[in-house]
Design brief:
The protein is α/β, with parallel strands linked by helices. It is built from 11 helices and 10 strands. It folds into 2 domains: about 5-120 and about 305-320, ATPase, nucleotide binding domain (Nucleotidyltransferase, domain 5, 2-Layer Sandwich); about 130-300, 2-Layer Sandwich (Nucleotidyltransferase, domain 5), CATH 3.30.420. The structure holds 5'-O-[(R)-(carboxyoxy)(hydroxy)phosphoryl]adenosine and zinc ion.
């Protein structure tokens, strides 16, 4: 059986317009990302309508560049993998319409890919030894999921956030302490100058579920702390708030993940999503996994945040299983993981 399929990945679920060519599921030939961060920064967050318009303006060029950097022609491509959910509906539609148009015009196979499946699959790129089963923590701007990856494309969700996603909490707290958008990388940087034990922010537990997360209480605790400092005319140490908040998030993510690994007897663990680029989270997970004798996997930062290489990788494994989408493929903003 042919194994070295060439997959063109397309990603447009939020504020990154991205296309990539991946060979054999694990070799990235090109990975082009056109970020809209500069524009959305002006508004303090992603403006969905602007995101869709920018995707429309850029997507053809991004795909051309991905093919050219990979040194391949469209006719060499075996399948087009496109994110069809979850995400911003207008943004997703640009990628889905583009992928369907190319598939219709050329006859190239089409595969709709789940965005979170893409994030998890980013781990396959730099870890040729990583194969399911393993446990994965997906932490991004829109998602916080603890997932059992039973096989390629086979997922069991063990826990999820009950309110804000981890990245969303980073972004909101960053805004509150005047760091602006996107908050995660800015908090990561400024926290290096602060004391993570300066302020005892809460570590939330969700009653009835040991693997679920909740970050809205922590976010409120930070806001209350800032308000009370203002009332008392006390100066706020931005690095201390950033470091203490970050530690509160990291502690909970590590504790739940290690508990799940112990309970499941799992010896392989991978993190994924934008927040997986966080230096404190990576360092804490390295330590915890070493203590628990668990092999720890994490993607390079460029494969943690949104990109199309991860979508092409996920698409490759779906394609090998015989999964194909037809031209009725549509954007599904709330697509559950593991369903198609
Ligand atoms: O995966 P991603 O690019 O988009 C979604 O699928 O949501 O994740 C974006 C999120 C943002 O909330 C951003 O603040 C966060 O990932 N992020 C980080 C870091 N880099 C990105 N959070 C903490 N530390 C970082 N270094
Ligand atoms: Zn994402």
């Amino acid at each position: 059986m042919k194994e070295d399929y060439l997959i063109l990945g397309i990603e447009s679920s939020c504020d990154e317009t991205a296309a990539a060519v991946v060979k054999g599921g694990r070799t990235v030939l090109s990975n082009v990302i056109s970020s809209q961060i500069d524009i959305h920064t002006l508004y303090g967050g992603v403006v969905p309508e602007i995101a869709s318009r920018k995707h429309t303006e850029r997507i053809n060029q991004v795909i051309r560049q991905a093919l050219s950097e990979a040194g391949v022609k469209l006719t060499d491509i075996d399948a087009i993998a496109v994110t069809y959910g979850p995400g911003l509906v207008g943004a997703l539609l640009v990628g889905v319409a583009e992928a369907k148009a190319i598939s219709f015009a050329t006859g190239i196979d089409l595969i709709g890919v789940h965005h979170i499946e893409g994030h998890i699959s980013a781990n396959y790129i730099e870890h040729p030894d990583l194969e399911p089963p393993f446990l994965s923590l997906v932490v991004s701007g829109g998602h916080t999921h603890l997932v059992n990856v039973a096989d390629y494309g086979v997922y069991e969700i063990l826990g999820r956030t009950r309110d804000d996603a981890a990245g969303e909490a980073f972004d909101k707290v960053a805004r509150a302490i005047g760091l602006g958008y996107p908050g995660g990388p800015k908090i990561d940087k400024v926290a290096k100058e602060g004391n993570p034990d300066a302020i005892p922010f809460p570590r939330a537990k969700v009653e009835g579920s040991i693997y679920d997360f909740s970050f809205s209480g922590l976010k409120s605790a930070v806001l209350n702390y800032l308000n009370s400092c203002e009332m008392k005319s006390e100066t706020v140490s931005v690095p201390d708030v950033a470091a203490s908040f970050q530690k509160a998030v990291v502690d909970v993510l590590v504790e739940h993940s290690m508990e799940a690994c112990r309970e499941r007897g799992c010896k392989k663990f991978a993190i994924a999503g934008g927040v997986a680029a966080n230096s404190a989270l990576r360092a804490a997970m390295v330590d915890a996994c070493r203590q628990n004798q668990i092999d720890f996997y994490y993607p390079s930062p460029v494969y943690c945040t949104d990109n199309a290489a991860m979508i092409a990788v996920a698409g490759y494994y779906e394609y090998r299983k015989g999964v194909r989408s037809d031209l009725t493929l549509n954007a599904v903003p709330n697509l559950p993981l593991g369903e198609r």
